[in-house]
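Quick one: structure tokens for this chain, please?
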Amino acid sequence: MMIISACLVGFNTRYDGKNSFHVVFEDLVKRGKAIPFCPEQAGGLPTPRMPSEIIGEGGHEVIEGKAKVLTRDGKDVTENFLKGAREALKLATLIGADTAILKSKSPSCGCKYIYDGRFCGALKKGMGVTAAYLKSHGIKVIDSDEYLNEFC
């Protein structure tokens, strides 16, 4: 069993109120192989919401208290992101998931690259908060773009 970013299966959970639907991910849910979730919503953030980026290195540093997650207008949403990560792990544990397919580049779900904190569209190597938290608890995290490149 896996968990998967809800936006990938068509839920309008992204910051802009849209989704990142792909039929490959929808099929995983339809076949009972994955359960969708959105850590940002689980952390108490609304949809739509102001875009957020990690200010500092990445998700591991957010977890360690060495970095923050801020919205474009400067609001600190670090606690929401940490709560969402904890809720994602609860779900994974509840359903016995050992893998998570997570939305690329997201400050929550990014597994390989995340936006660099300047809100200009530039990327840096790193993981989002939920991806880092799940990985640190033994859950395999897979970047959604990488998954599509491998299986499509």
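Helices lie at 23-30, 39-42, 59-63, 78-95, 129-136, 144-151.
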